[in-house]
Amino acid sequence: MDRIPILKMGPVLLVSIQVDMHDQLALTLQDDLTDRIVTTRARGVLIDISSLEVVDSFIGRMLGNIAAMSKVLDAETVVVGMRPAVAITLVELGMSLTGVRTALNVERAMEILGAATGNGGTPPGEVTDGRHPD
Amino acid sequence: MDRIPILKMGPVLLVSIQVDMHDQLALTLQDDLTDRIVTTRARGVLIDISSLEVVDSFIGRMLGNIAAMSKVLDAETVVVGMRPAVAITLVELGMSLTGVRTALNVERAMEILGAATGNGGTPPGEVTDGRHPD
């Protein structure tokens, strides 16, 4: 496992983190993701951490970094699927995940990113590709 | 890693396989996926194998099983992200992945499943949730 796959879904890039992150993997993910944001003109990054039983300070910092990098590339980051135990640990560790938005599941995250999945989830008057109406 | 996460995106369930499959993990995935198809009334299953460098006969059989199970639950399975080397190996092994549709990437698969991601990918006259127009 040398890199984590990045899936493009409309204007959103989806990353599902399922393996233990180590330094090199995190750096590769940051490189790949920023490249893909630029080449695909993505407006949102969606990171699924539902398989992670533990989010330590390393992962927390990585999520913060990704969010900050995406932000300067004009893409918003939403972390989805956080387990209750992970939320408890994060708060106990004093990690607030600054700049990282969270959502309960992918569909809620897609709504936040203004990119509903074609299931009638788009609010009236909102364009579906997450860009400005004009 | 005891189970592979299943992400619901509208009428489609998305599974990204990133780790080495073993018997128990494959069985758990089949159980989880069939459960989720029924509970979410999903019409499509999308399996991303872009991180797999090798698809052996075990994985091939698992994909075929998942496709067959989804089929009887009225959901179509599309495998995406197959690497060229994997395609070569599959053919050389004589595995035709019967009943499994493939697509180059998630967006093409979403089009096949009639569930475009809100990026204007839905063909005219086709409903976006993959069900019959009437």
3D shape of chain A? globular
CATH architectural arrangement of chain A: 2-Layer Sandwich
Provide the structure class of chain A. Answer: alpha/beta
Say how many strands of chain A there are: 5
Report low-confidence residues of chain A grouped into runs of 5 or more: 116-134
SSE ordering of chain A? EEHEHEHEH
Q: Could you report the average pLDDT of chain A, rounded to the nearest whole number?
A: 84
Explain this structure.
2 copies of one chain form a homodimer. Chain A is of the alpha/beta class and 134 residues long. Chain A has a single domain, classed as 2-Layer Sandwich (Transcription Regulator spoIIAA). Chain A has 4 helices and 5 strands, in the order ββαβαβαβα. Chain A has a 5-stranded mixed beta sheet. In chain A, helix 1 runs parallel beside helix 2. The longest helix of chain A is centred in the N-terminal third of the chain and has 18 residues. The radius of gyration of chain A is 15 Å and the shape is globular. The N and C termini of chain A lie far apart (42 Å). The C terminus of chain A is likely disordered. Chains A and B meet through strand 1, strand 2 and helix 4 of A and strand 1, strand 2 and helix 4 of B.
List keywords for this structure.
disordered C terminus; alpha/beta; 4 helices; five-stranded mixed sheet; homodimer; Transcription Regulator spoIIAA
Set out the fold topology.
2 copies of one chain form a homodimer.
Chain A: E1 6-9, E2 12-16, H1 23-40, E3 44-48, H2 57-72, E4 76-80, H3 84-92, E5 101-103, H4 106-112
Parallel strand pairs in A: 2-3, 3-4, 4-5
Antiparallel strand pairs in A: 1-2
